[in-house]
Design goal:
The protein has one domain: 2-Layer Sandwich (BirA Bifunctional Protein, domain 2). It contains 6 helices and 11 strands. α4 crosses α6. It is globular. It is α+β, with helices and mostly antiparallel strands. Helices cover 28% and strands 28% of the residues.
Length: 244
């Protein structure tokens, strides 16, 4: 059974309706089935006015490449099935937005299943909320991060003066699905994953854009449990008071 995670609301108020669970390391297919069940549960409970929301925190193991339904996304998987197998990496089709991404040990994945009517945002605001929660978390580790106006996710080392708005290193990816205004999927923050696995794909379909991690930026890896606690804190706080 997944264990509930305690987030200190005193230091940053979060909604009482949010149930946070740490799933540890878990396979992608298992978590996808859990998300779908929880999303349906939240949708069906809406009529009662007492639905809960859920935040699942985990690492995917075995590592996996996920491919969205976006036209051309499959072409951004550079590795053959045999090469993926040699690296111990699974491949799964997914119903989230975005393109191709990688999940594996050392990467913190957060899947919020929440009713956006309760939060008071729509899809664009939801993406910004997830990005801001990552930016706030990274700031606690001394990493200055921000958005790229041309690409969803969170980036470090990006020159804001670059004329085309590109540059920098991607440290977190975001891909979501919203059905009847209830979310699933979410974000993936690179804490200390095997960055060589990103060479098996064109991450998020962005050719030539490097990928980084907290460990690579700092020269040392923080404890995963600490990153989980801080990300959960900021997500809970931003759900209570969505950033504008």
């Amino acid at each position: 059974m997944p264990s509930p995670m305690s987030v200190p609301h005193a230091s940053g108020p979060g909604p009482e309706w949010l149930q946070i669970r740490d799933l540890g390391r878990v396979a992608y297919a298992e978590t996808l089935a859990r998300q779908r069940a929880l999303q349906q549960e939240v949708q069906e409970a809406r009529a009662t006015g007492c639905s809960r929301g859920h935040l699942l925190l985990l690492e995917h193991d075995p590592p996996v490449v996920t491919v969205s339904r976006r036209p051309g996304a499959a072409a951004n998987v550079l590795a053959s099935e045999d090469l993926l197998a040699r690296h111990g990496v699974e491949r799964h089709e997914t119903d989230r937005g975005g393109d191709v991404t990688y999940h594996g040990p050392g990467q913190l994945v957060a899947y919020p299943i929440v009713d956006l009517d309760r939060v008071g945002v729509r899809i664009h605001g939801w993406i910004r909320l997830l990005e801001q929660s990552i930016i706030d978390t990274l700031a606690e580790f001394g990493i200055q991060a921000g958005r790229d106006p041309g690409a969803t996710g969170v980036w470090v080392g990006r020159d804001a003066e670059t004329p085309d708005g590109t540059g920098g290193r991607k440290i977190a990816a975001i891909g979501v699905r919203v059905s009847r205004w209830v979310t699933m999927h979410g974000l993936a923050l690179n804490v200390d994953p095997d960055l060589r696995h990103f060479e098996l794909i064109v991450p998020c379909g962005l050719a030539g854009r490097p990928v980084t991690s907290i460990a690579k930026e700092l020269g040392t890896a923080p404890a995963m449990d600490e990153v989980k606690q801080r990300l959960a804190h900021h997500l809970a706080r931003n759900l209570q008071r969505p950033p504008t």
